[in-house]
Design a protein that fits this description.
There is one protein chain. With 393 residues, this protein is of the alpha/beta class. It has two domains: 218 residues, Alpha-Beta Complex (Spore Coat Polysaccharide Biosynthesis Protein SpsA, Chain A), CATH 3.90.550.10; 148 residues, no CATH class. Helices cover 53% and strands 9% of the residues. It is built from 13 helices and seven strands. It has a seven-stranded mixed beta sheet with strand order 3-2-1-4-6-5-7. Helix 2 links the parallel strand 2 and strand 3. Helix 9 packs antiparallel against helix 10 and helix 12 packs antiparallel against helix 13. The longest helix is centred in the last third of the chain and has 31 residues. The chain is elongated. The two termini are 31 Å apart.
Length: 393
Amino acid sequence: MNTLAPTSAPPVAPDAHDPDAPLVSVVIPCLNEAENIESCVKAALGAIERMGVPGEVVVADNNSEDDSARLAKEAGANVVIERRRGYGSAYLAGFAASKGRYIVMADADLTYDFDEIPHFVEELQAGAELVMGDRMDNIQPGAMPWLHRYIGNPILTGLLNLFFRTGISDAHCGMRALRRDVLPRLDLRTTGMEFASEMVIRASKEKLRIAEFPIEYHPRGGESKLSSFRDGWRHLRFLLVHSPNHLFIFPGAVLAGLGALIVVLVGAGLDFFGRAWGVHALIGGALLMIVGTQVLALGLCAHAYGTYFMGEQDPWFDRMRARFRLEHGLLLGSVFMLIGVVMGGIILATWISHGFGSLADEHLAVIAAALLIVGIQIFFSSFLLSILGLRRR
């Protein structure tokens, strides 16, 4: 399933000279929340009124089957209908319809306290470009299932911080705020629940100033739309596909390095772990080396695609790109292929010298085949990287 949507046109920035232009837009995604939406809209409008600043509440109704849209409009919200289902789809539509300089995001299930809106705006006015709420130390009894509180959210937030070094304590908090002028830089696209992760990842990659402060998390009103395992997998999948180093480069390097070590030790007839190893271990090592090389090549291609087509920035890949050219890859692949061909020639010459009889060069044959395959992988992967590089500006 494709979770990417065409990038919405950047919302028109508010006119700084228009005294009636809203300073704050509270955007609320809504799917069948008739039980809660009136209370959410009125609470948000009340918070804005107490701030004494111009503002608006935008409800992005995700094609609800109840009276959510009508109730939201009657409560004073600007309602935009987004018929494509999905958490991200609703927010993208809400952002496009909003007009405020500052955008505060919150769910329509009464889990967040809209009186926190002034605090979010203060952080933005103080220089932050993205402000995150942190629920984890202020979760009210019954507000969050133990699976989400102690397993799902800590693991996904931990992986996000490991992969992208965001330093965020609660990467999936639904109440957050951002400056409108950073939306073009974020270039948000995902349509599902992974939208929450995408925003944090893109903010980290764009080196936005991120602030975070603790907020309370209350039991929701009505029925939850979250699917623990499906939406958890969508988040994990999104983290992996946006981190080629952890998905491809590191595992590929480990596999290729381990395979090469096994091939060298077994090929040289050395004992390790207290015993001698035969051709089966050699085949296993060759397989690891081949698979590892292929995974590494896929990782480099993923980096190239992200850099040339998605505007990603990766200092490591940029350094490698500046240092190595197509010819370096072709030369390295040719060396591996040449060694493999030479070994194959030795086997052929030995076979001829024995009158085309039986051979016992299994070890040499496995090593020759592995080197030849690895050389071919490197050779043609270098061409693929060069083709992707044609997109370079």
